[in-house]
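Single Protein Entry

Contents — chain, fold
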Amino acid sequence: MSAEQVAALLHSNEITIRAQQHQIDALKHQLEWFKRQVFGSKSERFAPEPDPVQIPLGAVLPVPGQTVEARKAVPAHTRRVPRRDSTSEAADALPFFDEARVPVQVIPVANLQAAELSPDQYEVIGEKVSYRLAQRPGSYVVLKYVRPVIKRLDTQAIHTPAAPAGVLEGSRADVSFVAGLLVEKFAYHLPLYRQHQRLIDAGITVSRPWLTQLCQQSIGLLEPVYDAQLDSIRASRVKAMDETPIKAGRVSHGKMKTAFFWPVYGERDEVCFPYFPTRAGAHVREALGLEPGAGAVLLSDGYAAYASYAQKTGLTHAQCWAH
């Protein structure tokens, strides 16, 4: 083989290698993209188009033999808005609230036509009512306990009644404030720093760490209630359990650990959320115990930890139909 043929062959091989390398780089890029769709953060994942063959959950299939009513599209149209006083609308006069729970402030509206008339010149034959939803800034109140100090003249002894006992000993927080703090934080997801800002806007000066300590102390008061409720669930003949991930604890800068809540439901409508750092099957035994009782039934999904627990304790494992 001549030198020219060898050079031509090397040149051809070089072109082939470059083309293959370009193809490999393109395939690597596609593979990384597909990995992000499956394992990436939720914000990076791609939402696929709905499968026309797959029936969505909740869709109703037509009953065999049932005729489907034919329908046709009707062009949209507009209607004239009637000119009427909004305060005299019938819908405006209907209560949209629970009168037993919501305070109502009655505001009388003077009739200007009767302003210059004497009472014997007109007759009130009825009234019309309109409702408006209003808001007052802040709902905090300070309870001021005034305790008289007396001195007995015969013994010269000084007496004063003790301050009423609070839910937290030595705390200036009333039980209503403690309950509201927890409800705002955990039921309505209002963080403590926002509640702190609202307190300042209402003219109340407290420290933010005090709110944090208040939450910790008040949650400690609820632990016996939680323990009693979990014991009631364990004693239930039929109970349901599942596990769901939650971010708790920091792994590194900007990244959180994945822990798990194991919600368990009893036959008296009790619900508890035991927390465990992992999804290990041993946590099922920790939450439910090893003595489920005679005829006990556990309703769960197809996770193997529940089947293992049922085999070790002898209860009936009733799997969810969806799994």
About this structure: The chain has a mean pLDDT of 84. Residues 25 and 31 are 10 Å apart (CA to CA). The beta strands are 150-151, 158-159, 238-241, 244-252, 255-261, 264-265, 271-272, 275-276, 297-300, 316-319. The helical segments are 3-39, 175-187, 192-201, 208-234, 282-288, 304-313.
